[in-house]
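Internal QA ticket QA-208
Title: Verify multi-chain structure generation after dependency bump
Assignee: T.L.

Test input:
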Amino acid sequence: MTTTPHQTSREGLPPYRELSLYIDGTFISAQDRQTIDVLNPASSEVLGKLPVATTADLDHALASAERAFQSWRKSSPLDRSAILRRVATLARERAHDIARDLTRDQGKPLEEALSEILRCAEHAEWHAEECRRIYGRVIPPREPGIRQMVVREPVGVCAAFTPWNFPFNQAIRKISAAVGAGCAMVLKGPEDAPSAVVALAHLFHDAGLPPGVLNVVWGDPPTISAHLIASPVVRKVSFTGSVPVGKQLAAMAGTYMKRVSMELGGHSPVIVFDDADVAQAAQTLARFKLRNAGQVCIAPTRFYVHAKVYDRFVAQFTETMASVRVGDGLDPTTEMGPLAHGRRVEAMADFLDDARKLGGEVTFGGNRIGTDGFFFEPTVVAGLPDTARLMVEEPFGPVAPIVRFHATDDVIQRANSLPYGLAAYVFTNSLQTATTVADALEAGMVAINQFGISLAETPFGGVKDSGMGSEGGAETFDGYLVTKFITQR
Ligand code: NAD
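Actual output:
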């Protein structure tokens, strides 16, 4: 067991980003507002103070979004496209600075943070391209002299809530979709890891987005979401986060008949068949599992391995997990950083308690590392019953349960048995097995023998309790547009 995570010197680092609200085109510092301490999860040190929006700030943000929407909705798609392209360019130029602060407040290794910024510049570009293709259609009339048109219009002011695991990624997708569609937005970012969202507000501001089209607020999540969703100004709610919170917000939005997009949690099954390249699957899955310390909604989280190759898979997977270097994300040799906050460390400990009680074999890890910061060991638990908490609740951390299966029908039934339906992974060298299983899995995204399911040009979203709507792909504007039918003689 590792007892001390690798720490790195923080001397000589540039100061952490100044945190602010962003309302009506103005960055607003705390002044006499309440603040929230932002911690470095690698050390628990206080990095900065995040201003909490007052009720007056929220109303100011709503009013400026409402005003800005009236002109932004009429803007040319070419102008929207140009702003989104500038955002992508600026994101690339500033990627290193944004990534450094993202690592400091969220914990992920610097290389992962940098890749998050660079990959997400593509989201802005994708929306810049697609927003020029928001087409309507003409429907042939039943009699001459009538013209029937379908037009797609921006839904209006959107309230968006984004989480702390991919602070830049989750926010830029929602902002780019709203901006490209001609909507305005009030966004509450993650209080645990806010720097990347403040950086994003600067990117859009500097790219020339008119004041009020984007507003960023911070504070107590339930207070802010209740205020924004109840406001008649808001016409759409977009949330990325946990299933229980998503259901609450969707129910609230339903009370006011507002549209929703929900990107919620998952518990992604991985099915490894006996004809797969077992060593390669085990190695790549272990590395993929530990990306962002497992705090990824599409992380592989339930490993079903064919009985014939189970022992080999567990041994190789454990060896790879054990080789991963855990430490401060700013250290270039770090491969897995701390968890983003203390709540996840407690959650991991609870999962492990339950697993041990049920006779799971912890083949590696299982413990918190040190007491500075929020580190937890890469952990493998073999041989749990399907009823164990780890097998039915999203772990959202660096813990991987592995169980056996014998028959394809049985493993499909087990994979589909949970209310989640986000991502699923299959490893097989049989085309027939790949097709059968991909068709049968109840998931919004299925990856076979690889992991490429979060690209700007591909739709990202879940089914069942994992949410509704897609971000990215050709579907990306669907949630931000309403359909109007015009018939004319
Ligand atoms: P949580 O459910 O309290 O919060 C999850 C996110 O929702 C946070 O960003 C939080 O600020 C926000 N939130 C919470 N209550 C809210 C409300 N009433 N209104 C608006 N926003 C609200 O849990 P947590 O401890 O922060 O995270 C743990 C769980 O969250 C994980 O188990 C995972 O399921 C889920 N999660 C999912 C994603 C994702 O990408 N789907 C991202 C982060 C967290």
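Spot checks passed. Residues 95 and 117 are 6 Å apart (CA to CA).
Status: verified.
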